[in-house]
């Protein structure tokens, strides 16, 4: 089953009793398990531990998985994001790629949720700037 909660996010249902290899590949051993994948998670994704009803999933999707700030509409971004974009715009592509690599290296580490969210936002912004 597929559930669309946001235009840029797709949620899929996998039956691990049937798709054992796939579930094993992504470290799913208990059921039910919800995993999500973003540019900040590793290839196996990250386990979702929030509420399981549609309202809670929608809230998580909008707050965490939403594409966020877009460089093409930077005036709609938060002041913090706008300041970060302005600071990074003066750097050349090599410097942006270096910073992106540094931040991506930090993504797998443990940190407070607020810091992890800001890390993800910066990674998303840098990816746009590098293009």
Automatic annotation (TrEMBL):
Coiled coil regions, renumbered to chain: none
Signal peptide: 1-16
Membrane spanning residue stretches: none
CDD domains: PDI_a_family (cd02961)
Domain Thioredoxin: 8-62
Gene Ontology biological-process annotations: protein folding
Domain of life: Eukaryota
Pfam family of the protein (one): Thioredoxin
A single GO cellular-component term on record: endoplasmic reticulum
GO molecular function: protein disulfide isomerase activity
Annotated keywords: Signal
PANTHER family (UniProt xref): PROTEIN DISULFIDE-ISOMERASE C17H9.14C-RELATED, THIOREDOXIN DOMAIN-CONTAINING PROTEIN 5
Family, similarity comment: Belongs to the protein disulfide isomerase family.
Protein name, as recorded: Thioredoxin domain-containing protein
């Amino acid at each position: 089953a597929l559930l669309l909660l946001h235009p840029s996010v797709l949620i899929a249902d996998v039956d691990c009793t049937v798709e054992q290899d796939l579930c094993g590949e992504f470290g799913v051993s208990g059921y039910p398990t919800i995993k999500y994948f973003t540019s900040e998670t590793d290839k196996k994704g990250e386990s979702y531990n929030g509420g399981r009803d549609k309202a809670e999933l929608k809230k998580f999707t909008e707050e965490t998985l939403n594409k966020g700030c877009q460089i093409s509409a930077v005036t709609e971004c938060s002041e913090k994001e706008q300041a970060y974009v302005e600071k990074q715009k003066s750097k050349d592509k090599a410097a942006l790629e270096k910073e992106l690599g540094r931040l991506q290296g930090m993504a797998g580490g443990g940190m407070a949720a607020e810091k992890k969210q800001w890390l993800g936002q910066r990674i998303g912004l840098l990816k746009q700037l590098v293009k």
